[in-house]
Amino acid sequence: MKGLQLMNSTCVYVEIGQTSLKVLHGEEGLEVLLEREQNGGLTAACKEKVTLTLRNFLKRKSWQPRFQAYCAIAARGVSMRPLTLPPAGRDELDRVLRLQIEGEFPLSPDQLAWGWRQYAPTKQLQPNGSAGQEVVVAAARKDLLEDYAGMLAAGGLNPIFTLGALARSWICPHPPGSYAVLDIGRNYSELIAFENGTPNVLRIFPWGGANITRAIAEKLGVSEEEAEKLKLKLEHEPMADGLGQKIQDAIGEALNSLAAAVRNQWSGEKLYLTGKTSRLKDLPPRLMQCLGPLVECERKELMPGLGRSAAVLGLKRCHENDDGVLPLTIQLNGDGAVERMAEPGLRKWAMVAALLAFCTLALPYAEALLLKPRLARRLDAVKADMGRLAVIDRELGFLQYLKANQSPYLDTVYLIARAAQPGTRIDSIAMNHRGELSLRGSLQNSQQVTDFRSKLIDSGLFSSVTVEEQTPSPDRQKVIVRMSAQWKPVGARQSLSFDPSPQEIEKIKAAAKAAKSAGPGAGGMPPGMPFPMPGMPMNQ
């Protein structure tokens, strides 16, 4: 008994209806009104309100684990179907179920939150002569249950979902044959029917206590508020014969529509009634008259109190009687396996062991807690430096773009210097970004002009080199030359390299050093004058 009390103190029972959420924790109950969007999901404000209300209600400490919550959901948006599967091993059953769900439901198994329960083998034989397996599959939109799970987890609960209609059936006897459970709410009613203990029908009707109120209002010609008062007054005191009879006639007409809806879905013999509207005076016998003499209606009387609905009490009874196992759970990961609560004693020792293990691991790291402020400052400095990396990357990319697309002016001058023979004089060089080069100067003879042009072509930088003009100088000692050239495209120039060789660099350094040591009076260059490139003599 002690173990059962400990298990119940850490368990919470929840019903998520269309308009309200009911919670029972121990002997304390809670009810919260729900607000939904047009697609059926809860509004953001409603989820926040429920989360805060649950935290205040449960009073769970931050170091405590979440309470286990058994949650019954409304039938709207839920589909329940009995399926007959071929014989299969436990390992193959999940794969067979997925194939059946893909054929029976409009969404794929990955888009659904679903669960199943296996019943006795069916008498219907398979083509191979063996008896099939009869299972019941319940599926709902995955995003809807994810909303519920996130909201309940934020409130301090670890939810396990099942059908509210199934939960209500757990407070009712299970007679042989066909029976059903009808929960009558304010605007909607849920019907679940069983055949030899197997659920085979789940339906939701747009009929509730509001239909009776409207029928009375239309019959008496009064407002719905006045009709609601008369309906409630009828439960506690008799009325004048004329008025009372009119009210009874209006209730009978409303119940006829409900009976017709039930009869279209079920034709059994025993009907259990739950919900606030079922407590209306003489409603079970009146509904039994509408359904026919072969149907027996019985109202399930519940313990009054906040949060004590038929579904919540059914969850509690099933949990207490079946050792924490729900016959059918709807899993977000699509796995239909039934979740079990650990034994109370094992759970207690497991929590103690976990606490000891946590202390053992936490004590050596006390130093880390003391150095946390220093580490935070270091992290802030690293984050600041990382912010500068974006600027550096952007500037580097810009420089690399300039380098890849800049015109090779310096390379051209360097190649002209290398190709020039001793005695060559360059008067002018003109280049533009279109790759056009114009050069004017003088060489010793025509052979030097030919060699100069050949070296420029062999360098690979130019697609064409043309001697535009070649005339002897007035003193006939040199040849005046005007040449033009065209750079190759950028892609063709990528593989070229015009840097001087290490030997040439050393030669330039040695010549510069010698010229500097000689000084301007010893035939060297004046201070500040750059040393010429290889092959290019200084102008006289």
List the helices and strands and how they pair.
Layout: H1 2-9, E1 11-16, E2 20-25, E3 28-33, H2 44-58, E4 67-73, E5 78-85, H3 90-104, E6 112-118, E7 133-141, H4 142-154, E8 157-163, H5 164-169, E9 178-184, E10 189-195, E11 198-205, H6 209-220, H7 224-234, H8 241-265, E12 270-274, H9 283-291, E13 296-299, H10 310-321, H11 344-362, H12 366-370, H13 372-405, H14 409-419, E14 425-431, E15 436-443, H15 446-458, E16 462-472, E17 479-487, H16 490-493, H17 502-518
Parallel strand pairs: 1-4, 4-8, 9-12, 12-13
Antiparallel strand pairs: 1-2, 2-3, 5-7, 6-7, 9-10, 10-11, 14-15, 15-17, 16-17
Helix pairs in contact: 2-4, 6-7, 6-8, 8-9
Verbal overview:
It is a single chain. The protein has 540 residues and is α+β, with helices and mostly antiparallel strands. The protein has 4 domains: 1-171 and 302-352; 176-296, Nucleotidyltransferase, domain 5 (2-Layer Sandwich), CATH 3.30.420; 409-499, 2-Layer Sandwich (Gyrase A, domain 2); 501-540, no CATH class. The protein is built from 17 helices and 17 strands. The protein has helices spanning 2-9, 44-58, 90-104, 142-154, 164-169, 209-220, 224-234, 241-265, 283-291, 310-321, 344-362, 366-370, 372-405, 409-419, 446-458, 490-493, 502-518, and strands at residues 11-16, 20-25, 28-33, 67-73, 78-85, 112-118, 133-141, 157-163, 178-184, 189-195, 198-205, 270-274, 296-299, 425-431, 436-443, 462-472, 479-487. The longest helix is centred in the C-terminal third of the chain and has 34 residues, at 372-405. The radius of gyration is 46 Å and the shape is elongated.
